[in-house]
Specification:
Strand content: 5-15%
Largest sheet: 5 strands, mixed
Strand order of the largest sheet: 4-3-2-1-5
Shape: globular
Helix content: 25-40%
Order of helices and strands: HEHEEEEHHHEEEHHHHEEHHEEEH
Length: 441
């Protein structure tokens, strides 16, 4: 995304945030929204720091992701203020002064020590809604995270502005470029660690820059949903490759998953069938669609694939009702995405609080809201051959619902997951991930 285009989109984004902040403050009875960027945390009994992770409430306002010790002050009707920490330091790289399309919209005060920030925050801390983690406390300015403020902001963060969608589109383009490099490395016989390095090189982002820890799984490792060990040697024979890896653009995340077979075999055909289901589910990201219904519909469609491939021996609805499909598809169909990979507010009943329950028997679904224009969600159906879950089927007396010879054939491949980032619009959904793959050709 070009800087001029972002410059055109950013003022409207800032106006939306100002409007939301004003309403959140009205509801909580505070006068100011104060947001620390976060601090550097040190490992216990050591002087090594953990990688810095910026406060998502902070980076919602401006594209600063490496500015520990800085603060934002938002007061309705007043120009927003950034208190930016640029310390004198010869041990570490000092953050560069803010620059770019957004700086003209802020009053920016540069400080040299973290304690100086207190002089530039509102005079009465009691009148401030301070959003952050406990470690960000500065004297009397202690994060209080008022519930009315968080309920309101978290609920509305599900609705992305055109500026945010532009950054997520750019993140997908970075991620897709890296996914292609990872696939080439797999086809060349690289190890999981080697594929990971190829991915980071192509993305131009290392493990600390990426929005989450890359999942690079060969063969049976694909049956571990969050596999992150990365063996240094490739397995023999090389059968399959599952990659769940994203990218960051100015604090916004892409979350992309693809699965490949080393050969043109039955597993490749199964991948193609899951891919067709995934694309059909992406097309259902429409206004008014209940996301839990979409999750259950994914179970029905994946169960139909399992039946068609002679893995299970019952119809899709029965497979869902009896819990057989959960043994092969144990996670949720997706989640909200944006400033965080699993964006906040996924269970919010309204902007005043309350939660929307998950479907019974489906504890890992991360979004239970009804879709509406502006929401961006992932759609990530999967099929896996996980020994522990298959043994549970047997223990529940459901052994005769499964063709165990077919399971044995697919078990060495681990599993399949296909994931795209999809924007709900007034009409046809926008698939940011497929769009990026198409543009790369």
């Amino acid at each position: 995304m070009s800087t001029p285009a972002l410059a055109d989109l950013y003022p409207a984004h800032l106006d939306v945030l100002q409007t939301r902040a004003a309403e959140a403050l009205r509801r909580s009875g505070h006068d100011h929204l104060v947001i620390p960027s976060g601090t550097v945390h040190y490992q216990v009994f050591d002087d090594r720091d953990y990688p810095f992770a910026v406060n998502p409430q902070f980076k919602a306002w401006l594209p600063l992701t490496q500015a520990p010790g800085s603060w934002l002050v938002i007061t309705p009707g007043v120009r927003p203020k950034l208190v930016f920490l640029q310390p004198h330091d010869y041990w570490h790289v000092v953050p560069t002064l803010p620059q770019g399309y957004w700086v003209e919209h802020f009053d920016i005060i540069v400080i040299r020590t973290a304690d100086e920030a207190a002089r530039h925050l509102p005079a009465d801390p009691a009148r401030c809604a301070i959003l952050g983690e406990p470690q960000s406390a500065l004297g009397a300015y202690v994060p209080n995270n008022p519930a009315p403020v968080l309920h309101y902001l978290d609920y509305h963060r599900a609705f992305k502005t055109p500026y945010e969608i532009a950054l997520m589109r750019a993140a997908n383009r970075i991620g897709v470029r890296a996914h292609r490099a990872a696939e080439r490395a797999f086809r060349a016989g690289a190890s999981e660690f080697g594929i990971h390095l190829a991915y980071c090189q192509a993305a131009g982002q290392d493990a600390n820059d990426l929005p989450y820890n890359n999942i690079i799984a060969l063969n049976e490792h694909a049956a571990v949903l969050h596999y992150t060990r990365r063996d240094r040697l490739p397995p023999r024979p090389l059968r399959s490759f599952l990659i769940d890896a994203g990218a960051d653009c100015s604090g916004y995340a892409a979350d992309i998953t693809r699965t490949y077979s080393a050969q043109d075999d039955d597993f490749a055909a199964l991948i193609q069938a899951v891919d067709q289901v995934q694309q059909a589910l992406c097309d259902l990201v429409r206004p008014g669609v209940d996301y839990p219904w979409l999750h259950l519909e994914a179970h029905r469609r994946l169960a139909a694939v399992l039946r068609d491939f002679d893995v299970i021996r019952l119809d899709p609805e029965e497979a869902l009702q009896r819990g057989v499909s959960r043994a092969f598809f144990p996670h949720g169909i997706g989640h909200g995405i944006g400033l965080q990979v699993h964006d906040v507010g996924g269970f919010a009943a309204s902007d005043t609080g309350g939660t929307l329950a998950k479907p019974e028997g489906h504890p890992y679904l991360r979004l239970t809201r009804t879709l509406a224009p502006g929401m961006v969600v992932t759609i990530e159906p999967g099929l896996y051959f996980i020994d522990m879950l298959l043994e549970e089927l047997k223990a529940r007396g459901l052994e005769d619902t499964v063709n165990w010879a077919r399971v044995a054939q697919f078990r060495p491949y681990g599993g399949i997951r296909i994931e795209d980032d999809v924007v709900c619009t007034e009409d046809t959904p926008i698939n940011l991930t497929r769009e990026a793959f198409a543009d790369l050709h």
